[in-house]
Amino acid sequence: MKNLKNIFRKYKNSEVIFAKLLGFGGLIPFIIGLIILNFNINKSQVLEIVIIYAYTIIAFLGGIYWGVGLNIKVIAKRYFFISTLPTILIFISLLFSLSQIFKLIYLIVILNFFLYLEFYFFKKKLSKWFLDLRIKLNISLTVLLTLIILSMYLSI
Fold first, then answer.
1. Which burial class, exposed, middle or buried, applies to 51 when counting CB atoms under 10 A from its CB (0-12, 13-18, 19+)?
2. Which of 26, 117, 154, 156 has its CA 20 to 30 A from that of 18?
C-alpha cells in the first residue's frame, strides 16, 4: 500500500492520476477475458467480446488526435484526418470475414502503428507523462492480446 501512495504523491495533478487509473482500468476487461478463456466455456463468444472491446479502445485513440488538432490551430487538418484513421481501419476490418485470431493480430498492428504515429507526429504536442502512459498501456495491451492469441491457439 505504501508504494501505491508514492505513485500518487509523485503527481500532484489529479487529472494525471485519474487518466492513469482510467487507462490501466481499461485493461481489466482484457485480463478478465484472458482468465475466462482458460475455462471450459464458449471461447469464441468471449473472444468476440474482447475483439469488440479492443475495437472500441482503438477507435477511442482518434479522440486523442482530434483533441490535439483542436488545441494547435496550425496544421490542424492533419490531426483531424489522422483522428479518423482508427475508426476507418476498424471499419475496414469489419468488411471482411476474418478469423478471430487474425482480427487480434490486426488489432495489435493497428495499436502499435498509432503509437509510432504519436511519436513521429505528436511527440512535441503531447506531454511526457501522457506519452509514458501510452507506452505502458500499449505494451500491456500488446502483451495481453498476444497472450489471448496464444491461449486460443494452444487450446485448439
1. buried
2. 117
For residue 43, how many other CB atoms are within 10 A of its CB?
17
Is residue 22 in some structural domain?
A: no
**By residue range, what is the domain housing residue 60?**
44-155
The pLDDT score that the predictor gives to residue 5 is 47
15, part of any domain? no
Count of domains observed in the chain: 1
What stretches in the chain show pLDDT beneath 50?
1, 3-8
What is the secondary structure of 96-108 as a DSSP string?
S---HHHHHHHHH
Predicted local confidence at residue 86, as pLDDT: 93
CB 25 within 8 A of CB 137: no
Asked, for residue 126, whether it belongs to a domain, the answer is yes
* Angstrom distance (rounded) from CA 134 to CA 146: 18
pTM: 0.83
Give the relative orientation of helices 128-155 and 14-25 as an angle to the nearest 10 degrees.
Answer: 10
**Joined grid coordinates for residue 22:** 482510467
Asked whether 42 and 156 are in contact (CB, 8 A), the reply is no
* Amino acid, single-letter form, for residue 9: R
